[in-house]
């Protein structure tokens, strides 16, 4: 079964939210205290997703706020270089900095991150900087959950969602839950529910849906039963190496498998999943095939050093799908 | 035409939001600099509305946060004394204070207020302090806009609205716009729109609807055309002494007139209006009659010294309606 | 023994720090919950001291920041009316409010206060608003400890002290410790020590000196031994109804007794003490006599309703001293 | 002329203040946007100074606060590895991060930095974490100005200075002015004056002394005339490549010259200067010779990639002094 988009829109995906810098340990398989060199990449979930989609050939744009310094300019230059429209990227004039993520890769099973997220520019995107004229040009508005964690970025996203719905733009909500961004689980649940109820497609891990419902050990049946009372038509729930499920309001359910790969680190899996899954949907693949694209893309990224630079091409994805080596158990691939 | 409520609910109205202290100039018709004595009353829009409704005989409750001091205890004692259920009134344990409003009455035409709203307890109501078991017992959840101005009170209200809709409790949204509570007009518009779209009944002045729409000089036709695409079934737009309009989704429109009275001050008009209007609706009066109850109640309160203590009885309201002395022009009665 | 001042200075005392509003329970001998009316007075320790000194006939000035509203204007008008120079009173332009103190008088032994001190104007006095040309005109710069509790008022006071010392202006440090103003006892001790070491005269209760030393149950001998290593020449330590001690660097010690009076409340005792003590010193009385003026003035104020309005005249003070009814035990008169 | 220290103290220098991370562009002579790799070093003025002093053979300790993460542990491990006592290094338990400095080296003349200083651990050192027993063991307490920029670090330093003076520990104040750390020039001037007046030795650039005096284009004669009225006995004022001046309260003045070197970048010059200057003083060299050590050390560091790792040995310093190639004009070596 296919999922339909308005084909008259100029952009395939416009994402809103954070774009920041990853500083990946150059010397890995050791604790970060012993890493002396770091390589710089663009990072941040919605940025990674449009970078991935753009590399796959989609027409994309980005609404966000970047710092008025070398890091902010690097982000903008990189986005442009992969074909993303940056006309709605706002430069912060109040001294806020670009968020940073240092990665530590002790082993494929032991990865951790060290975040700098105090007063970062991306969370200062204001609702007055979100424009109806731009949003209405896109098939999809991609929202990632972290942008809801603080004002004024929160209001910017709520306004963007409101404008998308008014203009027949599909709202894709990638839950992208980062605990350190939020003040309380109650607050997270309030905003995750609010946006999920208004979204057309919701994508997240099982753990992230639990956060949205403010419960522990939730189950997929209850989740979809609740959300299908509201706007969502398609819900994707990911269970790491156990694969992922796509539920449609019309009743169909599909299961996708993870692909076997040599894991270097676990970062970036969720973002590469989303970029290829959305690519496939937009290109008219059926939902079952789109699940394969998502899984294959995730498997490729976890075998490489970065999250953004490593985003695969169509050929890489399709080759991996063709090999058809799915897995039933392996080191768990969580979002990190 | 009548507006229907679920008659099996235990409470008529549960309000959520701020309860604070008014300090009204005892010596008036002079600038506040020359006022040496102040009389203490309970204040705050949603508190005033349930105090008014309770005096009229409705069964009411209040969800809010009060300071752990003499002012907080005064509010609780007063609410209990007029019959409001205070089981969901939370005592703040972090040292936040009760909001204060000093009133200055230079003349009936020149009233102003001096607010103390820094770090006030009511804005610290947390979403974890809002309980489904309580909200679902009421015919109406009354939300006033100021409670949306700051976190965590904002999230508490968003959660309450979500729970009300889940449990067939009518959401009445009294816009109650106070500019000093908000950081920007964009932010206000985002949350006012979000809650208005989910509410069943929306009540406000024409100016307040303009704030919701983030425009100047809006008109009622556009306002109702937009909101009737969403949940609202009844919208009341007040135009001061020019009277008020009630619009129903089913198409009917009613106009209410203001009643002639000797104006002492302009405070409290909106709250007394809402309490009597809702009383009438709940008691099964038709909308046109409810408008008269609202106008009469407002006229009575502006002739007296306080906003809460002065809330009228049914007899007073019905006598004023019976006299039928409406006005076409007079000193403007704004919300203050 | 007398204490000498530079007689060529135009002002006797310039005080720096907070001026705010007291709202005193009009109906007393009851909990504040049952008080319905409050009377407004100017309050705040340094303001009370210059009001008291001014009424006694000294030439005084005040450096402080007041709110741009009716309360701020009331303070300025009142100060002018009692003869205080307000040329260096700055009007806050950032919306900060006047601090408030509601008083509760349950009985002479049970008095408490309810403070509004969030974001108050007096703590926003900036160092750029403190002018050398003004400070150097005074015999005394009176500093009260609370102004040190927050930036930028803290820096304004540190600058004022620096300028006073540079210009042969005696620095009188009234410890005036208010726990709710401070973040930690360590922080208080740091700034109290810093200013006390630079002051010429230090006045406080035994409890307040303990706060300065960050210890419990300190003793006067250790306190003066430490401080006399630095600038102070005269130290006054008050022990409530047990009287007060004045220690001089030159070695003399004097003891003052409290006077018998009918106590209404305990507020304002410390401020009236300081105003009359400083008055006597400036008028050339010896230290022993100055102690009597301080005690008598305190006894008079605790028998009356306000702290500022109630500041006594010379005649009242001298009559009480003449009656010579001192006390050895009675309801404790703490600073409140 | 020599400067005397208490020779019975166990430590030569205990520094207080910030220790953070420098991320130096590995590919230089280009804008940072084009730098893809960064090398990690310990940084921060007082940390650099004790690292330098420790490498020269002095017995040093450090009082500071580090983050509870990989960056904080790296700092502690590095300090230990060069022989610094870290027993008074406190681990932050409130989630504050290590400060970061990204360096950009476009050319020897064009260097800039990109700082992350929001909510950094070093500024959360509390006065309760400063211990008299430790400070009193040292000949020198080294204070750098940036630690005064925010509470509670500010109070920790003020307390440390108070304890040093009480225990005959020389207070060396390195002005180390970083504009982005401060809220206003008035505030800076207040605290710089306060500490400089209490210090025994004050070291800074001419620009930094202007900041202390809150003036533009100050001159050395006025600066020393003012400060010698207070505690300071030795004042070093640096004029970049024009050399530096040492003024003694006893009247002597000495001038030091900068040494010719191949400049890679300008970072770290001031810190290496201070470490070698203090080393020489402590080792009993006369002031004139100490100026040469400072200059030579600075010249060596600016020719290398890092500020801390690059700190020279005695042999390197003495060889450069022996070559005696001083300069009169060259690219300006500012503190950066």
Automatic annotation (TrEMBL), chains A, B, C, D:
Q: From which residue to which does any coiled coil extend?
A: none
From its record, what is one biological process in GO terms? inositol catabolic process
Q: What class of enzyme is it?
A: transferase
Q: Which CDD domains match?
A: KdgK (cd01166)
Q: Which Pfam families match?
A: PfkB
- What reaction does this catalyse? 5-dehydro-2-deoxy-D-gluconate + ATP = 6-phospho-5-dehydro-2-deoxy-D-gluconate + ADP + H(+)
Keywords for the protein's UniProt record, in alphabetical order: ATP-binding, Kinase, Nucleotide-binding, Transferase
Single GO molecular function: 5-dehydro-2-deoxygluconokinase activity
Q: Tell me which residues make up the Carbohydrate kinase PfkB domain.
A: 12-313
Note whether Endoplasmic reticulum occurs among the keywords.
no
User: Which InterPro entries is this protein grouped with?
Assistant: Carboh/pur_kinase_PfkB_CS, DKG_kinase_firmi, Myo_inos_IolC, Myo_inos_IolC-like_sf, PfkB_Carbo_kinase, PfkB_dom, Ribokinase-like
Reported function: Catalyzes the phosphorylation of 5-dehydro-2-deoxy-D-gluconate (2-deoxy-5-keto-D-gluconate or DKG) to 6-phospho-5-dehydro-2-deoxy-D-gluconate (DKGP).
Q: Which residues form the signal peptide?
A: none
Protein name, please?
A: 5-dehydro-2-deoxygluconokinase
Say which domain of life the source belongs to.
Bacteria
Q: Does the keyword Nucleotide-binding apply?
A: yes
Instruction: Give the enzyme's EC designation.
Output: 2.7.1.92
Record's family? Belongs to the carbohydrate kinase PfkB family.
Listed pathway(s): Polyol metabolism; myo-inositol degradation into acetyl-CoA; acetyl-CoA from myo-inositol: step 5/7
